[in-house]
Amino acid sequence: AQTVTQSQPEMSVQEAETVTLSCTYDTSESDYYLFWYKQPPSRQMILVIRQEAYKQQNATENRFSVNFQKAAKSFSLKISDSQLGDAAMYFCAYRSPNFGNEKLTFGTGTRLTIIP
Amino acid sequence: DTGVSQNPRHKITKRGQNVTFRCDPISEHNRLYWYRQTLGQGPEFLTYFQNEAQLEKSRLLSDRFSAERPKGSFSTLEIQRTEQGDSAMYLCASSLWVNPNSPLHFGNGTRLTVT
Q: In chain A, which end has fewer C-beta atoms inside a 10 angstrom radius, N or C?
């Protein structure tokens, strides 16, 4: 079974600075999909960014980008120009491409605090 | 797109009682997922449907848990004979499945407290 590890329970960053959240995963599959979700205090989870393992190019969405290192099974999230609205729990998630096993497996999350 | 709706938002029940939660997905989304989240943890997968068919069920889901999605629209999650360990946030998500890259859209969750 796949596992996802987020080793930083809490992180903080000064507003306008850059922060990187780490995520590692364990899998024997060669093709898979990775996601970062954000859960603000209101609790609704929102997709931040996604990456397909067969794509070598790192995904980017505005101020959010990933550093995908397939050999190291690492999938970190970089947030540039941090804003107060970025404060939330961030969850890394893994999905297998195999039919019937396509659930998202989440890590334990990183709580990000933005310091004004 | 009105988003995924979950009802009730909060439920307090006594141990041993049955509870039922409802999830209304985004219209035309063919997949619906149930997750459970306890404090300080990431969501744990419970089960998911494609249309009305239940495709996968976690081993976390004991015989006291049952989920349905009649007609492939809304879904219900029932917990029978609740235990204090069932206290958690129950999250529903839906997806318009095209490929494994299709994102999940989550609701606000139902918080269950078993006393």
A: C
Rounded to whole angstroms, the Cα distance separating B68 from B22 reads: 10
Instruction: Report the residue of B39, B90, B106 to disrupt the A interface, i.e. the one with the largest count of A CBs within 10 Å.
Output: B106
Alpha-carbon distance A55 to nearest alpha carbon in chain B (angstroms): 12
Residue A50's nearest CA partner among A14, A101, A91 is A91
What digits encode the pLDDT tens for the residues A40-71? Answer: 987 789 999 999 999 989 999 999 999 999 99
Residue of A nearest to B48 (CA): A103
pLDDT digits (tens, 9 = 90+) for B100-109: 888 899 999 9
Contact between A39 and A93 under an 8 Å Cβ cutoff? The reply is no
d(CA B43, CA B37): 4
The residue assigned the tokens 């989304």 is B29
A44:B106 CB<8 A: yes
The nearest CA of chain B is from the CA of A57 a distance in Å of 15
Chain B residue numbers with beta carbons less than 8 Å from the beta carbon of A100 are 55-56
